[in-house]
Amino acid sequence: MGDGGYELLWGAKTRPARGRPPALSRERIVAEALAIADAEGLQQVSMKHLAERLGSGVMSLYRHVPGKDELVALMYDATMTDPPRLPEGEGWRAAMTAWALAVRDLFHAHPWALALATANHAMGPGEARWLDTALGVFEAEGLPAEICLAAVMAVNGYVGGAVRPEIQGQDDPHWFRFLQHESAREDYPHVYRLVAENSFTVPTVDVFGFGLERVLDGLERYIEDHR
C-alpha cells in the first residue's frame, strides 16, 4: 500500500464552498471505491472503473486523489471511521473481546482489507483511533506502554490469522488433495485423521472463540503476575 497516502490521510481537509455542493468530492470517490471493493474485490478498483461509476472523467478524479495507492490508503482507513464501543465496568477482558470481535467483523465486511492490514502502510486517523482505544484498555490495568502495545498486537495478530480461513473458506478441495496419495495415511497420520473425522470442515467448537479465549488467558496470567 506504500506511504503515498499520508498527506491525504492527515492533511487538513478543505471546507466545502458555500452554495451548491460539488458533483465530485474525495469522500464520494472513496465511498464509491469502497462499494466496488466490497462487491467485486480490490483488483476491480481502477480510476477508469470509478469514473464510469461516478459519471465523470478520469482526469477529474485526479484532482481529488493523486493515484491508486493514495486511494487505497484512504479506503482502508475509511473502514475504521469509528472505533468500536467497548463495554464499561465489565473488565479489560470483556472490553478486548468486544474489540477483537469488532476487528473480525470489519474484515468480514471488507475482505479485501485483510491483506492490507499486514502490509507496510501509513496509519491513518481511523486506524489510530482503533489502536488508541485498545491501548487504553490495557493502560487502565497499569501496564507499561510498550507492554500495552505488545498485548494489543497479540490480540490483533490472532484475529488477523484466525479470520483468514473464515473469509477464504476452509473447504477448498485443493487443500487436502495430497491425502489421495497412497502413502498419505502413514506420512501425515494426524492430518489424515482430522479430515477423515470431518473435524476440520465441520468443527464442533467455536474455533475463533476458542483461540481468542486462550490468548486472553495468557494475557490475564501476565496481568495478574504484574500486579
Describe the structure.
The structure is a single chain. Helices cover 60% and strands 0% of the residues. It has 12 helices and no strands. The two termini are 40 Å apart. The chain has 227 residues and is an all-alpha fold.
Biggest β-sheet, characterized? none
User: How confident is the prediction overall: mean pLDDT?
Assistant: 88
Radius of gyration from CA coordinates: 22 Å
Q: Helix coverage percent of residues?
A: 55-70%
- Counted beta strands: 0
Strand percent estimate = under 5%
Low-confidence stretches: none
Helical/strand content category: mainly alpha
Net shape: flat
- Total DSSP helices: 12
End-to-end C-alpha gap: 40 Å
Instruction: Give the SSE string.
Output: HHHHHHHHHHHH
Topology diagram in text:
Blueprint: H1 6-10, H2 26-40, H3 47-54, H4 58-61, H5 68-78, H6 92-109, H7 113-117, H8 125-139, H9 145-168, H10 184-187, H11 189-196, H12 207-226
Helix pairs in contact: 2-5, 6-9, 6-12, 8-9, 9-12
Descriptive keywords:
single chain; 227 residues; mainly alpha; flat
Give a quick rundown of the structure:
It contains twelve helices and no strands. The protein is mainly α and 227 residues long. It is flat, with a radius of gyration of 22 Å.
